[in-house]
Amino acid sequence: MDPFSYLSVLISIILALGMTRVLAGVGEMLQARSHRRMYWVHALWIVNLFLYLVIAWWIFYRWRNQQPWTFFLFVFVLISPTILYLASMLLFPREGDVDLAVDYKTHYYANHRAFFILFALFTPVDIVDTLLKGIAHFLEQGWRYDISIAAALMGLTIAAITRNERYHQFYAIFFLIQTVIISFAIFHTLV
């Protein structure tokens, strides 16, 4: 087994745990829909986070040619999936509370600061991750990457600071559109 295959197992497990938490949270929402008040902004962030988990898994493959792997590089590469996993934990009430009445709007705003601070941390980690793959790789991403990163960092930071519902409504939609566009523009192929 080559080093990438070996190390990718733990990365995959962490990303899969985040995906599992999102899917389990949606399952609990559906099971307990009679005593759970849905909030469309919260639902959109579920979609946004799930897309980011999928994208993180997809682009991790870009590390396949890294030689040699050091322990510190591996620990650094673990940061992104860990951030996304922790963000997935904040989106939903604790597991097993299916019988509790939940207002997802209340839950969303009670956890928005921690969720968006975590999500915002993903951005500088992604910049360093991209740079560690080489300056040529970073430059290949082009202006779309630069604009996307700047917009994400600014938008997520504002979302962490403000409780303004109009902003959160706008930004949930904007983030989804931005993620889809960037995914097709930059990450459309595996290599």
Question: What is this structure's SSE topology?
Answer:
Layout: H1 3-31, E1 36-37, H2 40-60, H3 71-90, E2 102-103, H4 104-132, H5 135-161, H6 165-186
Parallel strand pairs: 1-2
Identify the notable features of this structure and list them briefly.
191 residues; 77% helix; two-stranded parallel sheet; mainly alpha
What does this structure look like?
- Helix 1 (3-31) runs antiparallel to helix 2 and helix 5 runs antiparallel to helix 6 (165-186).
- 23% of the residues are buried.
- The chain starts with a helix and ends in a 5-residue tail after the last helix.
- It has helices at 3-31, 40-60, 71-90, 104-132, 135-161, 165-186; strands spanning 36-37, 102-103.
- The protein has 191 residues and is mostly helical.
- The chain has one domain (3-186).
- Strands 1-2 form a two-stranded parallel sheet.
- Helices cover 77% and strands 2% of the residues.
